[in-house]
Amino acid sequence: MEVRNNLRYSEDHEWVLVENDIATVGISDFAQDAMGDVVFVELPEVGSNLDAGQPFGVVESVKAVSDLLAPLSGEVVEINEELLDTPDSVNSSPYEDAWMIKIKLADDAQVEALMDAEAYRSCIAEQ
Amino acid sequence: MSRTGTLTQLKVCPRAAKAEMKSGTATSGLILKDKLIFEHSDAGRTGYSLPALDVPAAALAAELTRAEVKGFPEVSEVDVVRHFTRLSTWNYGVDSGFYPLGSCTMKYNPKINEVAARLPGLAGCHPHTPERFSQGTLALMHDLQGALAEISGFDAVTLQPAAGAHGELAGVLMIRAWHESHGRSRKKVLIPDTAHGTNPATAALCGYEVVPIASGDAGVLTAETVAEYMDEDVAALMVTSPNTLGLFESDIRKICDIVHAGGGLVYCDGANLNALMGIARPGDMGVDVMHFNLHKTFSTPHGGGGPGAGPVGVTEKLIPFLPKPVVVKEAGNYRLDFDRPQSIGRMRSFYGNFGVMVRAWAYILTMGGEGLKQASQMAVLNANYIRARLEGAYHLPHQNRSLHEVVFSDQDLGGNCHTLDLAKRLIDYGYHPPTVYFPLVVAGAIMIEPTETESKEVLDEFCDAMLEIAREAEESPELLLEAPTLTALRRLDETAAARKPQLRYCPPQEATEKKENKSCY
Amino acid sequence: MRYIPHTEEDVRQMLATIEVDSIEDLFVEIPAEVRLDRPLDLPAPKAEAEVLRELKRLAAQNATEESHSCFLGGGAYNHFIPSVVDHLLSRSEFYTAYTPYQPEISQGTLQAIFEYQSLICQLTGMDVSNASMYDGASACAEAVMMASRATRRKKILLASGLHPEYRETVATYCRYLEMELVEIPAGADGRVDAAALEAALDKSTAAVVAGYPNFFGVIEDLASLAGAAHAVGALLVTAVAEPVSLGMLKSPGELGADIVVGEGQSFGMPVSFGGPGVGFFAARQKTLRSMPGRLVGATTDKEGRTGYVLTLATREQHIRREKATSNICSNQGMCALMATIYLSQLGKKGIRELAEQNLAKAEYAKQAIAVLPGFSIPFAAPTFNEFVVEVEGDVEALLLRLEEQEILAGIPLKKYYAGMERCLLICVTEQNSREQIDALVAALKGGLA
After folding, report:
1. Which contiguous run of DSSP H or E holds residue C146?
2. Is residue B462 a contact partner of residue B386, using CB atoms and an 8 Å limit?
3. A42 in reach of chain C (CB within 8 A)
4. Closest partner residue to B129 among C28, C72, C303, by Cβ?
5. Rounded CA gap, C264 and B152, in Å?
């Protein structure tokens, strides 16, 4: 299971890439594997404000459904429109093509609270 | 042009499979393909006849009318008959063979029930018929209510809900109405992790927050657990007894006492009543509300998914809240009572699935009290017999004595085979698979409910097949992984179906006109 | 007991295999304190002939279309049922199967539902139909909840001409969902009062719900209702209690409806004292994911052959539990199959001719009654196969006198509407001959005296 070193991870298996004050969010390779074939992704509207831990969307496979929980607080400034038509890329390219939303960070300190790659590796090793 | 060039011979199953299958009833045979009814259509062909119009024709303003129902088929009566007859042969029903679908009580559907429901005086009675001309239907409903109350130990029964989930909704709405009539606005409903998904969905529909509670290691709910969760914000506990593991909730009396002492009510999902008739009654256990499934316990056909009927029994304190109208008997006459100020209201139009009630009443009359008890006893005997024969070959996660159904898991299944593969292989042996992957508390669950209408011979053949499949999983797992092979279609691609939903047929010209419309096939 | 095959010897052998001594030992987990210590107080078992005799005795106490001249509608309709429908339905591979959980051995049910969904879309002019729901009234309640989810609004405007039992059912379902239900009165012509609607519509409105035709048999102006609803971002929910009308009326989809529900009993099902019928439910593509109920979709098997499966199940209770779009976990499979067979047989020309006959017969009766002294037609808007008659006199007494002539003349509206004590709803279908209609008119004329 691939865990990328340049990313941060939430306990809920979202990954976060922070560039300046914009955080790009997706779900991890581990998460997509556990879900099985993803058939549908629902994302929030651009402009909505999220609190960390709040559901911002849904990812569905044939027989499972998971809420996506915001790893960080902030405003949604962009969503991956293409992903809505190609949900299978969550399985084939979780860290690249299947990014989900970009959040303008409300509080930089929240990033530090997320796991780094090493911590996430040991987290999923326990599961 | 010939439209009948559709004969095909079934693929012969792999030699290995055929050579090794010693049990089961399936064989290969001639099966007929068919297309969609729309694809049989030919402009100008008709399959109906109406009497000549004996009054002057009338018209509506052009802006109100359509030119035609675009896309509707134009086929002959023979086309229709052959099409649906072929479709029927692609199905497996209780009349085809053993159908041990757990939690669904797929017992034999007696044919007299079908005849009874079609009697012109019953099927032809209009719901707006004045009461003096519908005494027969009202009497039947009244007597059926009484019989269900006697079987379950409740004080009153409504027949209005159309299915089990609809009955649950009526039941939980009554619970909430009862609380509110006492000025209480409790927020939570406790639901064990073994529950059917309808339980939490229903509680949410009634504005309740769902609090899941864990059943113990033995697979049953303990009084201690319930006591731990019970507080002044809990409106109700929803239980299923016997539960979805086929185990009796042996603490039920204590559990009901705890919930009542805390000011809550107990809802029982009656899906599994087939274990208890004449043996024990939920109303006597302290349960306040329960729905019945006439299509499970009382032998009415499942109809490929419905119609069912989900009557609800209640104790005395909930009677004022029953859905209206209620059938009552006064001075030898039956009538519908609409004057029920505390009623939760109506669950649907009219009075319920009357045609299903007729079938259930025919069944109860046939069985009598004694026959119903015997049905429950033999249903429990059958489940325990299967358990005894398969224990050892299949992992049994819970050890308490089973009632009407038994839940195994795929833990001991060899060859990297899973429950799904076992299920598909059972099809090759000529059986409808059990319920799979439910209840959720057992990983890879295999939930077998034989019902009382199956003979020892049928159970033995099924158990032989199950044992043979367990061996196959060890020795030639590809037989499971590739199954089914004897069916007209192999495993279907559910992922593709969900990714690009095609939910209706579109005529070829419409498909090109509306390329953006993704729901067209 | 003919449904239970066990012999005494079978039971003995099975108990031995289980390693218990008696049947009683199988019930050890049920404590004595909750056991029933007496036989059930029910009648003794009856033979098949006796059961049938008893049911025929009950059946004989009811009036039907065969014993009476019947002009009852109001949500359940007498239409001719071709022999083919019941004959095919009686294929027990259909009716003794359950939910098509195992698609490889359920293609009959699945393909039939796919065809049903297609027919409903064609009839309603919508993009997607579910596999069916309990009945028209509960489908209407589900539509209201879906509209509220889709718009995230809580106010629902219900036309008073919507079938009263549909309105009551909506109220029951919404009882604890913090919805605001507002009734919009009918105007003088029997359609939704446009001014009252305009006054009630606002940015908190989730949906406008109207019958088509409505309970008075009147054909609502759906295009105007859709325009008014859409102007404030609300949805138009249309409930069709008599779908034979859609054989000639413009489809609700074409007129701008967002959700179309209705009752399919007219399509090959007996009136059966009000159930079972089949609730149909159709919507737009864009709201597919928030639809309640089962859906069947096309796909292929591993060898590339077309087949059908239950799909998009993640909306449903067995997966999403308390967050599901509905608590429903079944459909009315057998009734949906009846509708599919019936509509296939009727086809494009048949549904049209059937609708035209219903209209013509009802119009013939309406015009004849309109000119009777003491009777009038209160609503001027066009109607389909039902219409309201206002009587100068006592409706109940009139109905009683007609019953003596074996005519069930209609539904007194007093039951449903305050202020309509003198009104009667009369339904005329293709099953009512000219002779019957003439007899009704004559009896009404004489009955008032």
Report:
1. helix C136-151
2. yes
3. yes
4. C72
5. 34
Assess contact for C375 and C391: CB atoms under 8 A. yes
Strand, coil or helix: what is C442? Answer: helix
Give the model confidence (pLDDT) of B173-217 as tens digits.
999 999 999 999 999 999 999 999 999 999 999 999 999 999 888
CA distance C55 to B123: 12
> Which positions in chain C touch A42 (Cβ < 8 Å)?
289
Q: Chain B: nearest CA to A104, how far in angstroms? A: 31
Could you tell me the fold of the domain covering C83-343?
A: Aspartate Aminotransferase; domain 2 (3.40.640)
Do B495 and A37 lie within an 8 Å CB cutoff?
yes
In Å, how far is C318's CA from the nearest CA of chain B?
4
Q: Which of A41, A62, A63 to mutate to test the interface with B (most CBs of B within 10 A)?
A: A62
DSSP-derived letter for residue C247 is G
pLDDT in tens, B415-460: 999 999 999 999 999 999 999 999 989 999 999 999 999 999 999 9
What does the domain layout of chain C look like in residue ranges? 69-81+348-447, 83-343
Domain encompassing residue B187: 144-367
Domain C69-81+348-447, what fold? Aspartate Aminotransferase, domain 1 (3.90.1150)
pLDDT in tens, B222-278: 999 999 999 999 999 999 989 999 999 999 999 999 999 999 999 999 999 999 999
The CATH number of whichever domain residue B254 belongs to comes to: 3.40.640.10
Q: Which of residues 477-516 of B touch A (CB under 8 A)?
A: 494-495, 498-499
CA nearest A85 in B: which residue?
B499
List chain C residues with pLDDT less than 70: 449
Same domain? B181 vs B271: yes
Which CATH number do you get for residue B419? Answer: 3.90.1150.10
Domain final residue pick, B306, B340, B367: B367
Number of domains in chain B: 2
CA dihedral over B21, B23, B28, B34, signed as positive or negative: negative
Contact C121, B504 (CB under 8 A): yes
Question: Given a cut of 50, is residue B17 above it in pLDDT?
Answer: no
Closest C-alpha among C126, C192, C188 to residue C157: C192
The closest alpha carbon to C214, from C159, C265, C252, belongs to C159
Question: Using one digit for the tens of pLDDT, what is the confidence trace for C233-287?
Answer: 999 999 999 999 999 999 999 999 999 999 999 999 999 999 999 999 999 999 9
ipTM of the modeled complex: 0.98
State the nearest Cα–Cα gap between B80 and chain A, in angstroms: 34
**For residue B321, what are its two tokens?**
């809240």
Same domain assignment for residues B230 and B352 = yes
